[in-house]
Design the sequence.
């Protein structure tokens, strides 16, 4: 019986993904489908009878929406461009810009001056990433490791 429920949730998710696919790339479609499946499974754990069916439906829709948003965000190539720009910014102390011509995403990494924390040298930084022209800004701290690499500390 439980397998049948998961199968039904999967079919709903695939249907949602197929319906919502107009204008979406494979990452976004995959995120929508996987999110719908996970949301449906999570929703099926609540309530009983028709309440469980409603919870499953709501979970499927919420999961699909969340998965869709995640699918729109940075792909592997974007993350590599960001990683390379971050490394250069941490190494040199100079602001670094990056751009992925394939996805159209771009950003900037702005490092602060280096300071010593224990045995490590660290830099606070600010990064702004533009996804579909919308800026998303974050801050953190990166510290140089004994092997020369930089690790995001927070």
Sequence:
């Amino acid at each position: 019986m439980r397998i049948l429920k998961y199968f039904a949730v999967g079919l709903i998710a695939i249907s949602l993904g197929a319906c919502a696919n107009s204008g979406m790339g494979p990452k976004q479609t995959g995120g929508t489908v996987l999110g719908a499946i996970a949301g449906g499974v999570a929703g099926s754990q609540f309530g009983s009878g028709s309440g469980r069916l409603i919870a499953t439906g709501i979970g499927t829709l919420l999961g699909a929406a969340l998965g869709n948003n995640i699918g729109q965000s940075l792909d592997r190539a974007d993350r590599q461009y960001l990683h390379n720009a971050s490394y250069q910014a941490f190494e040199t102390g100079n602001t670094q810009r990056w751009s992925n011509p394939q996805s159209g995403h771009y950003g900037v990494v702005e490092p602060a001056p280096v300071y010593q924390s224990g045995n490590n040298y660290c830099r606070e930084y600010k990064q702004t990433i533009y996804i579909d022209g919308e800026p998303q800004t974050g801050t953190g701290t990166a510290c140089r490791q004994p092997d020369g690499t930089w690790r995001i500390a927070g």
The radius of gyration is 21 Å. Residues 76-152 form one domain. The mean pLDDT is 77.
